[in-house]
Amino acid sequence: MLSDLEIAYKSRLKPITDIALNLGLKKREFHPYGNYMGKVSLSAVDRLKDRKNGKYIVVTSITPTPLGEGKTVISIGLSMALNRIGRKSSVCLRQPSLGPVFGVKGGAAGGGYSQVLPMEDFNLNLTGDIHAVTDAHNLCSAFLDNSIFHGNRCNIDLDSITWKRVMDVSDRSLRRVRTGLGFKDKAFERSSGFDITAASEVMAILSLSENLADLRKRLGKIVLAFDRHGRPVTTEDIKAAGAMAVLLKDAIKPNLIQTIENTPCFVHTGPFGNIAHGNNSIISDRIALKLSDFVVTESGFGADCGGEKFFDIKCRLSGLVPDCAVIVFSVRALKFHSGKHKYSSFQDKKVWMKEDIPAVKKGAENLRRQINNVKLFGIPVAAVVNRFNFDHKKELDFAVKKALEFGADRAVVSDVWAGGSSGGIDLARAVVELAESRNKKFRFLYPLSMPIKKKIKVLSKDVYKAGKVTYTADAERKIGHLTRLGYGNLPVCMAKTHLSLSADPKLKGAPSGFTLPVRDVHASIGAGFLLPLCGKINTMPGLPEHPAGENIDIDSRGKIKGLF
Length: 564
Prior knowledge:
By secondary structure, the chain is of the alpha/beta class. It contains 21 helices and 23 strands. 54% of the residues are buried.
Protein backbone atom coordinates (compact mmCIF):
# COMPACT_ATOMS: atom_id res chain seq x y z
CA MET A 1 0.00 0.00 0.00
CA LEU A 2 1.33 3.43 -0.92
CA SER A 3 1.66 6.11 1.77
CA ASP A 4 -1.08 8.73 2.08
CA LEU A 5 1.16 11.36 0.53
CA GLU A 6 2.14 9.07 -2.36
CA ILE A 7 -1.53 8.33 -3.04
CA ALA A 8 -2.29 12.04 -2.94
CA TYR A 9 0.49 12.86 -5.42
CA LYS A 10 -0.78 10.20 -7.86
CA SER A 11 -4.40 11.41 -7.73
CA ARG A 12 -5.96 13.41 -10.55
CA LEU A 13 -7.50 16.66 -9.33
CA LYS A 14 -10.08 18.68 -11.20
CA PRO A 15 -9.72 22.46 -11.41
CA ILE A 16 -11.38 23.81 -8.27
CA THR A 17 -13.48 26.24 -10.33
CA ASP A 18 -15.09 23.23 -12.04
CA ILE A 19 -15.87 21.70 -8.63
CA ALA A 20 -17.47 24.97 -7.49
CA LEU A 21 -19.57 25.46 -10.61
CA ASN A 22 -20.73 21.82 -10.69
CA LEU A 23 -21.76 22.19 -7.05
CA GLY A 24 -24.01 25.10 -7.96
CA LEU A 25 -21.99 28.16 -7.01
CA LYS A 26 -21.97 31.16 -9.36
CA LYS A 27 -18.66 32.26 -10.80
CA ARG A 28 -18.88 35.57 -8.93
CA GLU A 29 -19.34 33.65 -5.64
CA PHE A 30 -16.05 31.77 -5.90
CA HIS A 31 -12.49 33.08 -5.73
CA PRO A 32 -9.73 30.59 -6.67
CA TYR A 33 -6.47 30.39 -4.70
CA GLY A 34 -4.42 28.71 -7.41
CA ASN A 35 -5.78 25.70 -9.31
CA TYR A 36 -7.08 23.49 -6.51
CA MET A 37 -8.26 25.71 -3.65
CA GLY A 38 -10.60 28.65 -3.34
CA LYS A 39 -12.85 30.74 -1.14
CA VAL A 40 -16.63 31.01 -1.25
CA SER A 41 -18.18 34.46 -1.01
CA LEU A 42 -20.79 35.05 1.70
CA SER A 43 -23.09 36.41 -1.00
CA ALA A 44 -23.89 32.74 -1.71
CA VAL A 45 -25.64 32.53 1.66
CA ASP A 46 -28.08 35.29 0.71
CA ARG A 47 -28.75 33.93 -2.78
CA LEU A 48 -29.48 30.42 -1.51
CA LYS A 49 -31.36 31.28 1.69
CA ASP A 50 -34.80 30.22 0.37
CA ARG A 51 -33.60 26.90 -1.04
CA LYS A 52 -34.48 23.73 0.89
CA ASN A 53 -31.72 22.20 2.99
CA GLY A 54 -30.29 18.77 2.25
CA LYS A 55 -29.94 16.08 4.91
CA TYR A 56 -27.52 16.92 7.72
CA ILE A 57 -25.22 14.12 8.94
CA VAL A 58 -22.83 14.53 11.87
CA VAL A 59 -19.90 12.14 12.34
CA THR A 60 -18.57 11.58 15.85
CA SER A 61 -16.80 8.68 17.57
CA ILE A 62 -16.12 6.68 20.67
CA THR A 63 -13.42 7.98 22.99
CA PRO A 64 -10.37 8.11 20.69
CA THR A 65 -6.93 6.72 21.31
CA PRO A 66 -3.85 8.91 20.76
CA LEU A 67 -3.43 7.20 17.38
CA GLY A 68 -6.81 8.36 16.07
CA GLU A 69 -9.48 5.97 14.82
CA GLY A 70 -10.33 7.33 11.37
CA LYS A 71 -13.22 9.71 11.96
CA THR A 72 -12.07 12.00 9.16
CA VAL A 73 -11.44 9.00 6.90
CA ILE A 74 -15.05 7.89 7.46
CA SER A 75 -16.46 11.42 6.99
CA ILE A 76 -14.71 11.80 3.64
CA GLY A 77 -15.45 8.23 2.53
CA LEU A 78 -19.12 8.50 3.49
CA SER A 79 -19.53 11.66 1.44
CA MET A 80 -17.88 10.00 -1.56
CA ALA A 81 -20.02 6.87 -1.14
CA LEU A 82 -23.22 8.94 -1.00
CA ASN A 83 -22.25 10.44 -4.34
CA ARG A 84 -21.51 6.96 -5.65
CA ILE A 85 -25.08 5.80 -4.91
CA GLY A 86 -26.56 8.86 -6.58
CA ARG A 87 -26.96 11.31 -3.70
CA LYS A 88 -25.30 14.68 -4.30
CA SER A 89 -23.04 15.12 -1.30
CA SER A 90 -20.51 17.49 0.25
CA VAL A 91 -18.27 17.08 3.27
CA CYS A 92 -17.49 19.87 5.78
CA LEU A 93 -14.28 19.65 7.82
CA ARG A 94 -12.25 21.76 10.21
CA GLN A 95 -8.84 23.06 9.18
CA PRO A 96 -6.04 21.20 11.00
CA SER A 97 -3.92 23.04 13.54
CA LEU A 98 -0.18 22.91 12.99
CA GLY A 99 0.14 21.75 16.61
CA PRO A 100 -1.10 18.19 15.94
CA VAL A 101 0.31 18.16 12.39
CA PHE A 102 3.86 18.60 13.71
CA GLY A 103 3.14 16.88 17.04
CA VAL A 104 1.47 13.57 17.89
CA LYS A 105 -1.39 13.07 15.47
CA GLY A 106 0.06 14.22 12.17
CA GLY A 107 -2.23 15.49 9.43
CA ALA A 108 -6.00 15.40 9.33
CA ALA A 109 -6.77 15.02 5.63
CA GLY A 110 -8.05 11.48 5.99
CA GLY A 111 -5.95 8.68 4.59
CA GLY A 112 -5.52 5.98 1.99
CA TYR A 113 -8.14 6.33 -0.71
CA SER A 114 -10.36 8.50 1.49
CA GLN A 115 -8.53 11.84 1.52
CA VAL A 116 -9.11 15.48 0.75
CA LEU A 117 -6.69 17.15 -1.63
CA PRO A 118 -4.32 18.87 -1.95
CA MET A 119 -3.49 17.20 1.34
CA GLU A 120 -0.24 19.06 1.93
CA ASP A 121 -1.91 22.48 1.63
CA PHE A 122 -4.90 21.31 3.67
CA ASN A 123 -2.62 20.20 6.52
CA LEU A 124 -0.35 23.23 6.40
CA ASN A 125 -1.38 26.84 5.72
CA LEU A 126 -4.26 26.42 3.23
CA THR A 127 -5.42 30.00 2.51
CA GLY A 128 -4.04 31.51 5.73
CA ASP A 129 -7.17 31.56 7.91
CA ILE A 130 -5.44 30.25 11.04
CA HIS A 131 -2.74 32.91 10.69
CA ALA A 132 -5.45 35.57 10.38
CA VAL A 133 -6.99 34.33 13.63
CA THR A 134 -3.56 34.39 15.29
CA ASP A 135 -2.94 37.95 14.10
CA ALA A 136 -6.38 39.20 15.19
CA HIS A 137 -6.01 37.63 18.62
CA ASN A 138 -2.49 38.99 19.20
CA LEU A 139 -3.45 42.44 17.90
CA CYS A 140 -6.02 42.50 20.67
CA SER A 141 -3.32 41.45 23.18
CA ALA A 142 -1.13 44.34 22.02
CA PHE A 143 -4.03 46.81 22.26
CA LEU A 144 -4.79 45.59 25.78
CA ASP A 145 -1.24 46.06 27.03
CA ASN A 146 -1.01 49.38 25.21
CA SER A 147 -4.17 50.59 26.95
CA ILE A 148 -2.64 49.75 30.31
CA PHE A 149 0.69 51.37 29.42
CA HIS A 150 -0.99 54.64 28.42
CA GLY A 151 -2.72 55.31 31.70
CA ASN A 152 -5.03 52.30 32.05
CA ARG A 153 -8.07 54.34 31.05
CA CYS A 154 -10.36 51.32 31.55
CA ASN A 155 -9.18 50.96 35.17
CA ILE A 156 -8.30 47.32 34.55
CA ASP A 157 -7.49 45.08 37.50
CA LEU A 158 -4.27 43.49 36.20
CA ASP A 159 -4.86 40.33 38.24
CA SER A 160 -8.18 39.77 36.45
CA ILE A 161 -6.82 39.67 32.89
CA THR A 162 -7.71 36.37 31.18
CA TRP A 163 -6.66 37.26 27.62
CA LYS A 164 -3.37 35.63 26.65
CA ARG A 165 -1.49 35.41 23.37
CA VAL A 166 -1.68 32.55 20.86
CA MET A 167 0.41 30.70 18.32
CA ASP A 168 -0.42 27.71 16.13
CA VAL A 169 2.24 25.25 17.27
CA SER A 170 2.49 23.23 20.46
CA ASP A 171 4.99 24.83 22.84
CA ARG A 172 4.54 23.92 26.51
CA SER A 173 7.33 26.32 27.56
CA LEU A 174 5.02 29.24 26.74
CA ARG A 175 2.11 28.14 28.91
CA ARG A 176 3.20 30.63 31.56
CA VAL A 177 5.21 33.75 30.81
CA ARG A 178 5.92 37.10 32.45
CA THR A 179 5.22 40.18 30.34
CA GLY A 180 6.17 43.82 30.74
CA LEU A 181 9.77 43.16 31.75
CA GLY A 182 12.40 45.85 31.21
CA PHE A 183 10.36 48.91 32.16
CA LYS A 184 11.50 51.13 34.99
CA ASP A 185 7.94 51.08 36.31
CA LYS A 186 7.39 47.54 37.59
CA ALA A 187 3.62 48.14 37.62
CA PHE A 188 3.38 46.87 34.03
CA GLU A 189 4.81 43.46 34.83
CA ARG A 190 2.26 40.66 35.02
CA SER A 191 1.88 36.93 34.59
CA SER A 192 0.37 35.68 31.35
CA GLY A 193 0.87 32.88 28.86
CA PHE A 194 0.13 31.46 25.43
CA ASP A 195 -2.73 29.29 24.17
CA ILE A 196 -2.75 27.41 20.90
CA THR A 197 -4.65 29.28 18.17
CA ALA A 198 -7.31 26.57 17.97
CA ALA A 199 -8.23 27.43 21.58
CA SER A 200 -8.62 31.15 20.87
CA GLU A 201 -12.04 32.65 21.39
CA VAL A 202 -11.50 34.39 18.05
CA MET A 203 -11.44 30.96 16.38
CA ALA A 204 -14.67 29.97 18.13
CA ILE A 205 -16.29 33.25 17.12
CA LEU A 206 -15.27 32.79 13.48
CA SER A 207 -16.80 29.32 13.54
CA LEU A 208 -20.10 30.41 15.08
CA SER A 209 -20.68 33.74 13.27
CA GLU A 210 -23.51 34.01 10.74
CA ASN A 211 -22.03 36.80 8.62
CA LEU A 212 -19.53 39.67 8.72
CA ALA A 213 -21.81 41.90 10.80
CA ASP A 214 -22.34 39.12 13.34
CA LEU A 215 -18.58 38.50 13.44
CA ARG A 216 -17.93 42.18 14.17
CA LYS A 217 -20.57 42.22 16.90
CA ARG A 218 -19.23 39.08 18.58
CA LEU A 219 -15.65 40.32 18.48
CA GLY A 220 -16.74 43.43 20.34
CA LYS A 221 -18.23 41.32 23.15
CA ILE A 222 -15.01 39.50 24.05
CA VAL A 223 -14.32 39.94 27.76
CA LEU A 224 -10.59 40.48 28.30
CA ALA A 225 -10.51 41.37 31.98
CA PHE A 226 -12.49 43.12 34.71
CA ASP A 227 -12.05 46.58 36.13
CA ARG A 228 -11.48 47.29 39.81
CA HIS A 229 -15.24 47.35 40.37
CA GLY A 230 -15.73 43.89 38.83
CA ARG A 231 -17.21 45.14 35.58
CA PRO A 232 -16.18 43.43 32.31
CA VAL A 233 -13.64 45.11 30.03
CA THR A 234 -14.20 44.17 26.40
CA THR A 235 -12.44 44.51 23.07
CA GLU A 236 -14.89 47.30 22.30
CA ASP A 237 -13.70 49.17 25.38
CA ILE A 238 -10.07 49.12 24.22
CA LYS A 239 -11.13 49.89 20.61
CA ALA A 240 -9.61 46.73 19.12
CA ALA A 241 -12.69 44.94 17.74
CA GLY A 242 -12.90 46.84 14.44
CA ALA A 243 -9.29 46.16 13.47
CA MET A 244 -9.68 42.51 14.46
CA ALA A 245 -12.67 42.19 12.13
CA VAL A 246 -10.66 43.72 9.29
CA LEU A 247 -7.97 41.06 9.72
CA LEU A 248 -10.67 38.38 9.48
CA LYS A 249 -12.53 39.75 6.44
CA ASP A 250 -11.31 36.93 4.19
CA ALA A 251 -10.99 34.27 6.89
CA ILE A 252 -14.78 34.34 7.38
CA LYS A 253 -15.20 32.99 3.83
CA PRO A 254 -15.22 29.16 3.70
CA ASN A 255 -12.53 27.33 1.75
CA LEU A 256 -13.39 24.80 -0.94
CA ILE A 257 -11.20 21.87 -1.95
CA GLN A 258 -12.05 18.33 -3.15
CA THR A 259 -11.78 14.70 -2.13
CA ILE A 260 -9.68 12.12 -3.92
CA GLU A 261 -12.82 11.31 -5.96
CA ASN A 262 -13.58 15.00 -6.65
CA THR A 263 -16.39 15.35 -4.10
CA PRO A 264 -16.67 18.97 -2.84
CA CYS A 265 -15.13 19.60 0.58
CA PHE A 266 -15.70 22.78 2.58
CA VAL A 267 -12.90 23.52 5.06
CA HIS A 268 -13.48 26.27 7.55
CA THR A 269 -12.22 27.08 11.08
CA GLY A 270 -10.48 24.72 13.48
CA PRO A 271 -11.53 24.89 17.15
CA PHE A 272 -10.38 21.89 19.20
CA GLY A 273 -13.09 19.58 20.55
CA ASN A 274 -11.48 19.11 23.96
CA ILE A 275 -10.83 22.82 24.60
CA ALA A 276 -13.31 24.71 22.43
CA HIS A 277 -16.52 23.51 20.75
CA GLY A 278 -14.77 21.33 18.18
CA ASN A 279 -16.79 21.94 15.01
CA ASN A 280 -16.38 23.59 11.62
CA SER A 281 -18.21 26.81 10.78
CA ILE A 282 -21.95 27.35 10.66
CA ILE A 283 -21.49 29.34 7.44
CA SER A 284 -19.89 26.44 5.54
CA ASP A 285 -22.58 24.01 6.69
CA ARG A 286 -25.35 26.37 5.61
CA ILE A 287 -23.90 26.87 2.13
CA ALA A 288 -23.28 23.14 1.69
CA LEU A 289 -26.81 22.25 2.84
CA LYS A 290 -28.31 24.50 0.17
CA LEU A 291 -26.21 22.94 -2.59
CA SER A 292 -26.26 19.25 -1.64
CA ASP A 293 -28.69 16.40 -0.99
CA PHE A 294 -26.52 15.27 1.91
CA VAL A 295 -23.92 17.14 3.96
CA VAL A 296 -21.48 15.20 6.14
CA THR A 297 -19.95 17.29 8.92
CA GLU A 298 -17.43 16.09 11.49
CA SER A 299 -17.24 17.00 15.18
CA GLY A 300 -14.00 16.80 17.13
CA PHE A 301 -12.99 13.79 19.23
CA GLY A 302 -15.69 11.65 20.90
CA ALA A 303 -19.43 12.03 21.33
CA ASP A 304 -18.81 13.35 24.85
CA CYS A 305 -16.62 16.19 23.49
CA GLY A 306 -17.23 17.64 20.04
CA GLY A 307 -20.39 15.58 19.59
CA GLU A 308 -22.16 16.99 22.64
CA LYS A 309 -20.98 20.49 21.75
CA PHE A 310 -22.24 20.07 18.18
CA PHE A 311 -25.73 19.40 19.54
CA ASP A 312 -25.86 21.73 22.54
CA ILE A 313 -23.88 24.68 21.14
CA LYS A 314 -23.58 24.64 17.36
CA CYS A 315 -27.12 23.39 16.63
CA ARG A 316 -28.57 25.73 19.25
CA LEU A 317 -26.89 28.77 17.67
CA SER A 318 -27.41 27.77 14.03
CA GLY A 319 -30.95 26.42 14.28
CA LEU A 320 -29.84 23.45 12.16
CA VAL A 321 -31.10 20.01 13.18
CA PRO A 322 -29.14 16.86 12.23
CA ASP A 323 -30.96 13.99 10.55
CA CYS A 324 -28.56 11.24 11.56
CA ALA A 325 -25.37 10.69 13.54
CA VAL A 326 -22.53 8.33 12.68
CA ILE A 327 -20.34 6.93 15.46
CA VAL A 328 -16.92 5.76 14.31
CA PHE A 329 -14.92 3.15 16.18
CA SER A 330 -12.27 0.55 15.47
CA VAL A 331 -11.45 -2.87 16.84
CA ARG A 332 -8.05 -1.46 17.76
CA ALA A 333 -9.66 1.22 19.92
CA LEU A 334 -11.92 -1.30 21.66
CA LYS A 335 -8.87 -3.35 22.58
CA PHE A 336 -7.21 -0.22 23.92
CA HIS A 337 -10.27 0.66 26.04
CA SER A 338 -10.24 -2.79 27.59
CA GLY A 339 -7.43 -1.51 29.81
CA LYS A 340 -5.37 -4.55 28.89
CA HIS A 341 -2.61 -2.56 27.20
CA LYS A 342 -0.71 0.60 28.04
CA TYR A 343 -0.21 3.13 25.27
CA SER A 344 3.53 2.38 25.07
CA SER A 345 2.90 -1.33 24.40
CA PHE A 346 -0.15 -0.56 22.28
CA GLN A 347 2.10 1.13 19.73
CA ASP A 348 3.46 -2.33 18.95
CA LYS A 349 1.51 -3.62 15.92
CA LYS A 350 1.66 -7.16 17.31
CA VAL A 351 -0.87 -6.08 19.93
CA TRP A 352 -3.35 -4.97 17.27
CA MET A 353 -2.89 -7.99 15.02
CA LYS A 354 -3.59 -10.64 17.62
CA GLU A 355 -7.23 -11.76 17.74
CA ASP A 356 -8.62 -10.96 21.19
CA ILE A 357 -12.41 -11.16 21.49
CA PRO A 358 -12.43 -10.78 25.32
CA ALA A 359 -10.54 -7.46 25.01
CA VAL A 360 -12.93 -6.27 22.29
CA LYS A 361 -15.90 -7.20 24.48
CA LYS A 362 -14.58 -5.33 27.52
CA GLY A 363 -13.56 -2.25 25.54
CA ALA A 364 -16.94 -2.16 23.82
CA GLU A 365 -18.42 -0.69 27.00
CA ASN A 366 -17.04 2.66 25.81
CA LEU A 367 -18.97 2.20 22.56
CA ARG A 368 -22.13 1.50 24.56
CA ARG A 369 -21.74 4.75 26.47
CA GLN A 370 -21.04 6.88 23.40
CA ILE A 371 -24.00 5.44 21.49
CA ASN A 372 -26.16 6.31 24.47
CA ASN A 373 -24.70 9.83 24.56
CA VAL A 374 -25.89 10.50 21.01
CA LYS A 375 -29.26 8.87 21.71
CA LEU A 376 -29.77 11.41 24.51
CA PHE A 377 -30.35 14.00 21.76
CA GLY A 378 -33.03 11.96 19.99
CA ILE A 379 -31.02 11.33 16.80
CA PRO A 380 -30.81 7.97 14.97
CA VAL A 381 -27.35 6.41 15.09
CA ALA A 382 -25.34 4.46 12.55
CA ALA A 383 -22.30 2.79 14.12
CA VAL A 384 -19.41 2.08 11.75
CA VAL A 385 -16.30 0.02 12.31
CA ASN A 386 -13.35 1.60 10.54
CA ARG A 387 -11.64 -1.51 9.25
CA PHE A 388 -7.86 -1.88 9.45
CA ASN A 389 -6.08 -4.46 7.33
CA PHE A 390 -4.95 -6.38 10.44
CA ASP A 391 -8.49 -6.79 11.85
CA HIS A 392 -9.93 -10.29 12.15
CA LYS A 393 -13.36 -11.11 10.72
CA LYS A 394 -14.56 -12.59 14.01
CA GLU A 395 -13.65 -9.34 15.79
CA LEU A 396 -15.41 -7.21 13.16
CA ASP A 397 -18.56 -9.34 13.27
CA PHE A 398 -18.54 -9.27 17.07
CA ALA A 399 -18.12 -5.47 17.11
CA VAL A 400 -21.07 -4.98 14.74
CA LYS A 401 -23.21 -7.30 16.87
CA LYS A 402 -22.37 -5.39 20.07
CA ALA A 403 -23.11 -2.01 18.46
CA LEU A 404 -26.62 -3.21 17.56
CA GLU A 405 -27.09 -4.63 21.07
CA PHE A 406 -26.11 -1.25 22.52
CA GLY A 407 -28.83 0.61 20.62
CA ALA A 408 -27.31 1.63 17.30
CA ASP A 409 -30.03 1.75 14.65
CA ARG A 410 -27.63 0.38 12.06
CA ALA A 411 -24.10 -1.04 12.30
CA VAL A 412 -21.71 -1.74 9.43
CA VAL A 413 -18.05 -2.24 8.59
CA SER A 414 -16.39 0.40 6.40
CA ASP A 415 -13.34 -0.06 4.23
CA VAL A 416 -13.08 3.40 2.65
CA TRP A 417 -9.39 3.74 3.56
CA ALA A 418 -8.46 0.91 1.22
CA GLY A 419 -11.39 1.04 -1.18
CA GLY A 420 -12.50 4.66 -1.39
CA SER A 421 -16.22 5.16 -2.01
CA SER A 422 -16.75 1.51 -2.94
CA GLY A 423 -15.75 0.56 0.60
CA GLY A 424 -18.47 2.76 2.08
CA ILE A 425 -21.58 1.68 0.17
CA ASP A 426 -23.16 -0.15 3.12
CA LEU A 427 -22.60 2.86 5.36
CA ALA A 428 -24.02 5.27 2.79
CA ARG A 429 -27.18 3.19 2.37
CA ALA A 430 -27.63 2.92 6.14
CA VAL A 431 -27.24 6.69 6.53
CA VAL A 432 -29.74 7.42 3.75
CA GLU A 433 -32.27 5.08 5.34
CA LEU A 434 -31.91 6.64 8.79
CA ALA A 435 -31.79 10.25 7.58
CA GLU A 436 -34.95 9.82 5.52
CA SER A 437 -36.85 8.05 8.31
CA ARG A 438 -39.05 9.85 10.81
CA ASN A 439 -37.18 8.37 13.76
CA LYS A 440 -36.01 11.74 15.02
CA LYS A 441 -37.06 13.78 18.06
CA PHE A 442 -34.18 16.19 18.51
CA ARG A 443 -33.70 17.82 21.91
CA PHE A 444 -31.04 19.68 23.89
CA LEU A 445 -29.75 18.33 27.19
CA TYR A 446 -30.54 21.48 29.16
CA PRO A 447 -32.42 24.79 28.83
CA LEU A 448 -30.35 27.96 28.76
CA SER A 449 -32.27 29.26 31.77
CA MET A 450 -30.74 26.52 33.94
CA PRO A 451 -28.06 27.82 36.38
CA ILE A 452 -24.42 27.26 35.40
CA LYS A 453 -23.66 24.59 37.99
CA LYS A 454 -26.80 22.65 37.11
CA LYS A 455 -25.82 22.63 33.43
CA ILE A 456 -22.42 21.25 34.39
CA LYS A 457 -24.13 18.66 36.58
CA VAL A 458 -26.36 17.51 33.71
CA LEU A 459 -23.35 16.91 31.47
CA SER A 460 -21.25 15.31 34.20
CA LYS A 461 -24.06 12.97 35.26
CA ASP A 462 -25.80 12.11 31.99
CA VAL A 463 -22.86 12.18 29.55
CA TYR A 464 -19.71 11.45 31.58
CA LYS A 465 -21.40 9.41 34.38
CA ALA A 466 -19.48 11.21 37.12
CA GLY A 467 -20.46 10.58 40.72
CA LYS A 468 -19.98 14.19 41.76
CA VAL A 469 -18.53 17.52 40.65
CA THR A 470 -16.10 19.55 42.74
CA TYR A 471 -15.16 23.20 42.29
CA THR A 472 -12.11 25.12 43.37
CA ALA A 473 -12.74 28.30 45.33
CA ASP A 474 -11.71 30.29 42.25
CA ALA A 475 -14.21 28.44 40.04
CA GLU A 476 -16.99 29.01 42.61
CA ARG A 477 -16.16 32.71 42.77
CA LYS A 478 -16.15 33.10 39.00
CA ILE A 479 -19.45 31.26 38.57
CA GLY A 480 -21.06 33.61 41.07
CA HIS A 481 -19.54 36.66 39.40
CA LEU A 482 -20.56 35.57 35.89
CA THR A 483 -24.08 34.85 37.07
CA ARG A 484 -24.42 38.30 38.62
CA LEU A 485 -23.21 39.86 35.35
CA GLY A 486 -26.06 38.13 33.50
CA TYR A 487 -23.97 35.50 31.72
CA GLY A 488 -25.60 32.53 33.42
CA ASN A 489 -27.95 31.88 30.53
CA LEU A 490 -25.18 30.83 28.14
CA PRO A 491 -24.44 27.21 27.20
CA VAL A 492 -21.39 25.55 28.75
CA CYS A 493 -18.47 24.27 26.68
CA MET A 494 -16.66 21.75 28.85
CA ALA A 495 -12.87 21.69 28.46
CA LYS A 496 -11.54 18.28 29.45
CA THR A 497 -9.34 15.50 28.14
CA HIS A 498 -10.56 13.80 24.96
CA LEU A 499 -8.86 10.54 25.93
CA SER A 500 -11.39 9.54 28.59
CA LEU A 501 -15.05 10.03 29.44
CA SER A 502 -13.70 11.45 32.70
CA ALA A 503 -11.25 14.31 33.24
CA ASP A 504 -8.43 11.80 33.82
CA PRO A 505 -6.86 10.52 30.56
CA LYS A 506 -5.74 7.36 32.37
CA LEU A 507 -9.32 6.19 32.97
CA LYS A 508 -10.14 4.15 29.87
CA GLY A 509 -13.26 2.24 28.89
CA ALA A 510 -16.47 3.33 30.58
CA PRO A 511 -15.60 4.77 34.01
CA SER A 512 -18.40 5.90 36.32
CA GLY A 513 -18.82 7.29 39.80
CA PHE A 514 -15.63 9.35 39.54
CA THR A 515 -15.23 12.96 40.65
CA LEU A 516 -15.17 15.65 37.94
CA PRO A 517 -12.94 18.52 39.17
CA VAL A 518 -13.75 21.98 37.78
CA ARG A 519 -10.72 24.14 38.47
CA ASP A 520 -11.64 27.31 36.57
CA VAL A 521 -14.37 28.89 34.42
CA HIS A 522 -13.62 31.25 31.52
CA ALA A 523 -16.15 33.60 29.97
CA SER A 524 -16.21 33.35 26.16
CA ILE A 525 -18.94 35.96 25.78
CA GLY A 526 -18.19 36.77 22.14
CA ALA A 527 -18.42 33.11 21.19
CA GLY A 528 -21.54 32.79 23.31
CA PHE A 529 -20.58 30.14 25.86
CA LEU A 530 -18.89 29.60 29.22
CA LEU A 531 -15.80 27.40 29.41
CA PRO A 532 -15.37 25.26 32.55
CA LEU A 533 -11.83 23.83 32.71
CA CYS A 534 -11.77 20.33 34.16
CA GLY A 535 -8.82 18.46 35.61
CA LYS A 536 -5.40 19.15 34.10
CA ILE A 537 -6.58 20.16 30.62
CA ASN A 538 -4.12 22.53 28.95
CA THR A 539 -5.00 25.19 26.41
CA MET A 540 -1.43 24.98 25.06
CA PRO A 541 -0.46 21.36 24.20
CA GLY A 542 3.10 20.06 24.30
CA LEU A 543 5.13 18.05 21.81
CA PRO A 544 5.99 14.36 22.28
CA GLU A 545 9.55 13.08 22.60
CA HIS A 546 9.64 12.45 18.85
CA PRO A 547 7.27 14.90 17.12
CA ALA A 548 5.80 14.05 13.72
CA GLY A 549 7.62 17.11 12.40
CA GLU A 550 10.95 15.29 12.71
CA ASN A 551 10.01 13.28 9.62
CA ILE A 552 8.73 16.17 7.49
CA ASP A 553 11.04 17.64 4.85
CA ILE A 554 11.09 19.04 1.31
CA ASP A 555 13.31 18.21 -1.66
CA SER A 556 14.97 20.54 -4.16
CA ARG A 557 11.95 20.31 -6.48
CA GLY A 558 9.58 21.44 -3.74
CA LYS A 559 8.08 18.01 -3.11
CA ILE A 560 7.08 17.44 0.52
CA LYS A 561 7.83 14.14 2.23
CA GLY A 562 7.00 12.66 5.62
CA LEU A 563 3.60 14.37 5.95
CA PHE A 564 0.82 11.94 6.84
